[in-house]
Every structure is written in structure tokens, then in C-alpha cells.
Amino acid sequence: MKKVLVTLLIAFASVSGSMAMELNEYKVFYKLNNEVTFKSLNRYLKLEECQQIKLKDKFVALENDIKAALSEGDAEAAEQSMNESLEYLRSVLSEEQFDKFVLALNATINYSREILYAAN
């Protein structure tokens, strides 16, 4: 029962979090390439060394793709880069690790939205 509930929450969070993103919200992906953030993510997900290397490389590529999409104002390209990266991460991480990553990512996006809302 608990597994089903967690799976439903993850599915809802990933759908609501990724589909409703505005162009400037993709900047949250820059933080994945940050050394401190990556170390925290490594501890949280308990990554193996080969996973660390693959994720670090993917986060560098994702940051570059998102920056290019933002500079062109292309929300579709940003969303496509995000979706391709998530599919890649799904293949690299275990199911449990991927679920934890998606939860952390959506929490970060929602927190960024709250900060922006509070500032306005």
C-alpha cells in the first residue's frame, strides 16, 4: 500500500512539476552541476562511482542545453532537453534512486516558485 501511494505521489509530482514549468524555471537545472549540490545529491541517492561519472557528464550537457534554449527563448527545446535527460537518468539510476531524484527535483522547483511568488 505504501509503495503504491509513493508511486502515485511521484507520478503526480513529475507530471504537475514538469508540464507547468515556465521558461525561467529551467534555471533550477543549473544547480545540478554545482559541486555542493552534486555532493548532496550523491549522498542522498547513494550513487556508485560509475553513476556519479554518468550523472556529472549529463548535468554538464543539460546545463549547456538549457542555457542555449533560454538564450533563444525556446521553451520547447528546454522541455525536450529536460525530458531526454530524465529518460537517461532513468536508465542510469535504480528505480528507487530515480524516484528520489524526481521528488527532490520537484521539491526544488516548487520551492523556487514559492520564493518567486513571495518576492512578487
| Low-confidence runs of at least 5 consecutive residues | 15-20
Distance between the termini: 40 Å
What class would the helix/strand composition place it in? mainly alpha
| Strand and helix order | HHHHH
Q: How much helicity do the residues have?
A: over 70%
Note the overall shape: globular
State the total count of DSSP E strands: 0
Q: Give a short account of the largest sheet.
A: none
Oligomerization state: single chain
Counted up, domains total 1
- Cα-atom Rg, whole angstroms? 14 Å
Overall pLDDT level: 80
Number of helices: 5
Instruction: Bin the strand percentage.
Output: under 5%
Structural account:
The structure is a single chain. This protein has five helices and no strands. With 120 residues, the chain is mostly helical. It has one domain (23-111). The longest helix has 25 residues, at 95-119.
Question: Tags for this entry?
Answer:
mainly alpha, globular, 5 helices, 120 residues
What's a concise summary of this model?
This protein is mainly α and 120 residues long. It is built from five helices and no strands. It has one domain (23-111).
